[in-house]
Amino acid sequence: MPDDLFALHARDLLDTEAPLAARMRPRTLDEFVGQDHIVGPGRLLRRAIQADQLSSLIFYGPPGTGKTTLARIIANTTRAHFIAINAVLAGVKDIRAAIATAQERRGMYGQKTILFVDEVHRFNKAQQDALLPHVENGTVILIGATTENPYFEVNKALVSRSRIFQLKPLTPDDLRKIAHMALTDPERGYGRLNVRIDDDALEHLINVANGDARALLNALELAVETTPPDAQGVIHIDLAVAEESIQRRAVLYDKEGDVHFDTISAFIKSLRGSDPDAALYWMAKMVYAGEDPRFIFRRMLIFAAEDVGLADPNAIQVVESCARAFDYVGMPEGRFHLAEAALYLATAPKSNSAFAFFDALRTVEEEPEGQVPSHLRDASRDKKGFGHGQGYLYPHAYRDHWVAQQYLPDSLQGKIFYQPSDQGYEARIAEQVARRREAQLAAMLEEDAGAPPEILTFSGDLVDRAADRWLQRTISDLGGQLGDLRDAMMEKARIQRHHVVMDLRAGSGLLTWEALRRAAEGGVYALAWTEEDARALDQMAAALPEPRRPVIPHGDLALLPDLIARTEPGLRFDRILGRNALGPRPDKPALIPLLADLLRPDGLILLAETIPRHAQRLYQLIDLRRLDDPLARKLQDAEEAIYADPADPLVNWDAEALARLFRDAGFVVEVEEAVRESQVRVTTALLDRWFAEEGRGRPTYRQHLAAHLTPDELAQVEALFRGQLRGQTVPWQFRHLVIQLRKTTSRQGRTSPWEEQKIKD
User: Fold this and answer.
1) Which of 130, 195, 229, 276 is the S-S candidate for 346 at Cβ 3.0 to 4.6 Å?
2) 55, pLDDT greater than 90
3) Which of 209, 200, 202 is closest to 169 using CA atoms?
4) φ/ψ of residue 522, rounded to 5
5) Can you give the pLDDT at residue 384?
6) Over the stretch 443-489, which tens digit does the pLDDT of each residue have?
């Protein structure tokens, strides 16, 4: 009992005497500030923490962004036993002790254990090997925190068994909120003191903290603790005090770590993108953080050959000269030579044609070795015995010092590795290279010039089978078309890892599963319109860990707000996707405000709809000249009447009508409409469905025609269809619509910021 009292007293002293950053550490998710992309409403991690269904996790991000805090919040909310160790201080003995405790608790109480390892990247191989089997068998749930890229710095086996969450630097608004909490909290912060901080002083602390909450709180603590109160008892923090408290921006940069590689990558990509401003910025960050300038010069020398190349052959000479000058001059004046080299590369024309070497290298690795042509072999040793070197044409003996002859092995004739770009110096040699290639190929084929080329080759059953496979792919290309549609929609949607996404008509999950892959740290909701679809989606999702599964509400689209409210009240979506979700419905005007209410202010709705009004007309597939003119016209009029019925919600709309509904509801609308063509095999079964006496749900083609044609006329039309189309593969056109929707600022016709930006662009 006395030991417990002493321990409790020590904790109380720590809580009151600890640094401000430690005292203000959030204890619950509601107190946590920032990182909404992983712990905001509806996000995967928040749901897992609240449900106490955690798997192994690794938190990766800069200092002061909340990695350890999230682990402490988990410790406060979980029913599992929580053990925390620091990888810098802990050894294999500590790991074994933690494992022993975990095994004891699981055996005696059936209780899980969460092991939090701070700076997990500091574990050596022996420590990671000691931990790995117990993570694999579930003895402990690992939560690691690291500032280094776990894919490079943590044991691959541990990474493969953990979900990675990347934390980002806190925004100025986040830091402002944290500072306000520290100044107003009477127990853990300075709420009991009379502290007044000027706006410009607070903005200075926020700016220089550079997204690091710990740096901000440390500076704020120094300012408050070292500033005496005035006569009225007010501790006044002005700009001068703030500048003394935090004078130099904390630049996150580790010359052997992830930020080092990210920054040099940004520098190289800015050079490649011909952006001198960005190139200077990233280079300045490296120099400011103490990077070795010789490392930067080495990368620029590589870039001069890899990305500028023959578009400007002088680039490598300029960079090399600047590097030599830097060695002679040194710092700080040598920064001029760094800048000159970077600016030259950023503004130089670009060509990566030197990659042709790696194509040639791949050919050497993968293809059978090509023999050196006899006329190119060394004539000094085997000219008499084997005729090596005979027939070689000496280029300098010819006009322009060039002559057409074979240089590649026989098996590689016509192979092209080098593709000159159309930039700078290289553009001037591109035509010359092409013309010479053509001449060399002609020279190689000269002896066969009289033989006609064999264009087509047939080989019995093998070709028949190949032709049949080609035919089947052509007439059943629905899967390929849907895959293309999915990819196009995902490219437009630009789903981020932290987004919450709604699929309005999940069906088979075409959009759902791709959205789930892209929103790995967010969440996906998939509306199943039928019980059958819901069961199928649930079965497919069952293989995923529970927190990773999509939420699958089941019901009519009009009930969607109620269905969502049962799962996550107040949830709004970053992206709402749908394929043929609105087009066939009669209640489109009522559904559009419903979607608007479910969308976040900065969200996007993306719908893909096939427009039935513009469906393929069947009469266009037959030769109408086989019918009398009056009957041909009656057939056309009868079929067009199908698509002109104003009471049929399937066909009484088009792209403009749908866009108008959304504009009236206050959306910015962007429409892409295209005519697509597929191939359809007209089988006997398909003809039977067209000309059935009665259809299921909707009238058949025969039933529509019967309202306009006599039985005799209808018989003539059916005979013509069956005689001309049975067994044929016919082109099938349809019109497809992709509509992008964003909210406007109002419904009064004002231009939204998004529209204004489009106009400027």
Assistant:
1) 276
2) no
3) 209
4) -105, -125
5) 53
6) 444 333 333 222 222 233 333 333 323 332 333 344 456 667 888 89
490 and 579 inside one domain: yes
Query: 326 and 391: one domain?
Result: no
Structural domain includes residue 245: no
Which of these, 77, 78, 65, lies nearest to 33 by C-alpha position?
A: 65
Q: What Å distances lie between residue 122 and 88, 115, 119, CA to CA?
A: 6, 16, 6
pLDDT band at 15 (very low <50, low <70, confident <90, very high): low
Contact (Cβ atoms closer than 8 angstroms) between residue 67 and residue 59: yes
Contacts of 110 (CB under 8 A, 6+ apart): none
- Identify the DSSP state of 163: E
pLDDT in tens, 519-568: 888 899 999 998 888 887 887 787 677 888 899 999 999 999 999 999 88
pLDDT at 513: 83
For strands 57-60 and 500-503, give the pairing.
Answer: unpaired
Query: What 3-state class would DSSP assign to 197?
Result: strand
Residues 53 and 144 in one domain: yes
Is 269 in the same domain as 408? no
Residues 96, 130 contacting (CB under 8 angstroms)? yes
Q: Which structure tokens are listed for 586? A: 């009669």
* CA–CA distance, 670 with 662 (Å, rounded to integer): 10
Average pLDDT for 33-44: 85
CB atoms within 10 A of CB 573: 23
What's 372's DSSP letter?
A: P
Q: Is residue 221 situated within a structural domain?
A: no
Gyration radius (Cα) of the chain, Å: 36
Q: What is the CATH number of the domain that holds 429?
A: 1.10.3710.10
Query: Per-residue pLDDT tens for 692-712?
Result: 888 777 788 999 999 999 999
What average pLDDT does range 590-614 have in this prediction? 92
Q: Per the structure block, which two tokens stand in for 726?
A: 């049975």
Could you give the number of structural domains in the chain? 4
Nearest partner of 344 among 371, 374, 373, 317, judged by Cα = 317
Residue 760, domain member (yes or no)? yes
User: Which CATH number is 291's domain given?
Assistant: 1.20.272.10
The pLDDT value given to residue 404: 62
Beta-sheet strands, E only, within 704-760: 729-743
- In the listed set 150, 166, 182, which residue is the last one of a domain according to the structure? 166
User: What pLDDT digit, counting tens, does each position of 574-585 carry?
Assistant: 999 998 898 878
User: Do 397 and 521 sit in the same domain of this protein?
Assistant: no
Q: How far apart are CA 548 and CA 539, in angstroms?
A: 14
Residues 424 and 555 in one domain: no
Residue-wise pLDDT for 279-293, tens only, equals: 888 888 888 877 888
Clarify whether residues 377 and 326 are in a common domain. no
Percentage above 70 pLDDT, the chain: 81
Q: Mean per-residue pLDDT for 597-622?
A: 92
Alpha-carbon span 570 to 698, nearest angstrom? 39
Task: Specify the higher pLDDT residue, 668 or 261.
Answer: 668
Give the CA angle between residues 284, 288, 289 to the nearest 5°.
120
Q: How far is CA 341 from the centre of its chain?
A: 33
Q: Quick one: which of 722, 723, 693 has its CA closest to 705?
A: 693
Q: How far is CA 34 from CA 24, 173, 263, 281, in A?
A: 15, 9, 24, 27
Q: What is the pLDDT of residues 629-644, one digit of tens each?
A: 999 999 999 999 988 8
Q: Please say if the pLDDT value at position 330 is more than 50.
A: yes
Residue 343 and residue 267 in one domain: yes
**CATH number for the domain that contains residue 136:** 3.40.50.300
List helix spans (H) across 185-307.
Answer: 199-209, 213-226, 239-245, 258-272, 276-288, 293-303
**Is residue 243 in some structural domain?**
no
Q: Which residue range forms the structural domain that includes residue 306? A: 258-350
Q: To 5 degrees, how large is the angle CA 31–CA 36–CA 38?
A: 110
What residues have CB less than 8 Å from 112, skipping those under 6 apart? 79, 80, 81, 106, 141
Tell which of 120, 148, 166 closes a domain: 166
